[in-house]
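chain below, 545 aa
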Amino acid sequence: MVTSKNIDLLTAVEQIVDLAKESKLSKEFYRKADKYIKYISEKLELTKEQSVMIALFINWSDESCIHLKDISEYVKCPVVCILRYTDILESRELIRCRRKRNERVSFRVPFDVVEAFKHDEKYVPRRCTNLTCLELFAELENIFEERDNNELTFDTMASKIQSLFADNPQIEYVQKVKDYDLDTDVEMLLVLFSHLFVNKEDDDIRYYQLDFLYDNKRDWSNIRGKLSRGHHKLFWYNLIEYNNDNGMVDRDSFRMTQKAKDEFFGELSITNRSRKNKLEDLIKSEEIVEKKLYYGDNIRSQINELSQLIEDTHYKEIHTRMKESGFRCGFTCLFYGAPGTGKTETVLQLGRQTGRDIIQVNLSQIKSCWVGESEKNIKNLFDVYRNKVRKSKLVPILLFNEADAIINQRMEGAQTAANKMENSIQNIILQEMENFDGILIATTNLAGNMDKAFERRFLYKIKFEKPTLEARMSIWHEMIPTLDDSVTRTLATKYDFSGGQIENIARHYTIGNILHGKLDNDIDIITSYCDNERLDTRESRKIGF
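prediction:
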């Protein structure tokens, strides 16, 4: 039995939640739960009703999206009975609300609040005082992330930032911003530009990176119009400017002026940064190591033709003629086949041979836990590529490596948020490919499951097959030059390996020589590595180094 002496916050929550089930939050419920409600009320300085609500939210705190309907059904009372208390809980930062257009409102309980309840402590929002400039920008990144996730309204976000500034008047950046005495909406946009420059290293800021700041379309439309015409106050104060492309003003791309960088960021010792997008990795053509690849005659012929097509002189000529004829100008290629057959390495070598940099898509960063964020990421990716095409002397290659997850068959009648997101990403990619102007190569091991809509959008489709006997012999000799012809033929005949598998074995062999010295029985040692390379699925066995 729970007594007054052994009550703590979690115990009080447990008892309230148990008594609240199907209670309709009646007077009888409040009578039975009185001592537990009173404990939370006095500890957290909340009313009795607010104490009940936070107890119910804590019960669902392991959920990232808490819907009021779930709580309503649990206690058997209308949603409005719960809704009227969410504002005060949100203002006390005990819960966070996520509001997104065309989606159900949802809530979550911050981790720090749960930890306070575990330790039977009153939650007090953290005050950030005596920060350095760098620490200030770390806090700003958290606030903008919460705003981007629709957990903060514009007013709440602005209030948090202004409180952060008020608590840290010693920071030169804060002093400089406040010296301009800007209206709140202008100041918040300036702080967002500052955040993107400092935290994201971004000097190529686009509209899609700014629109999340505003609560409604009308406000954003007004701001966007002022930005596009150069009439915004940040232009008047010479704090932002347009980027340019070969001397032409790009009114869709912004950066902070050198004046602003010098004035605001002296404490950080940064004056010039360029964008580093987390969604892609740039592989410079001159940094790609030359590697000899072995193909069958049919594949070699297709790769040679593709190499000639994307050689700059031919590429420009074909691109111009395709455009004049009204055809799509993009070169979209699919490399498919078994793992280890050289698909990715072929893309790298094409980049090296033609002098084209490769933008490799980071698929793990594309998908976000928040619905809608992944779609924004994929649009951002293609925007970044178009921008690089405009600025590059040679059109770079956009590489979707191991693209199985994004070009597979779309799910009909998708119901779950995850499945809807997958379909949405695929639809965006299909649309982008329809109007694509550049060089796109995707690699996949599972072409059989590819959506037909993707299949017709790839102009070139090259199937990579496991190497022939002669090719395997050449690969063995290339990887381990000390092997004589009889050994390479024996290995190539006995083991139907891909080039990637042979490379694995060659690496094992080299490591063994380093650790143990060169041994005489090469064939036996390599054979043992070959046998270990083939996974035996007939019975369980240990796999080790």
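Residues 4-118 form a domain with the Arc Repressor Mutant, subunit A fold (CATH 1.10.10.10). The chain has 27 helices and ten strands.
thats it, cya
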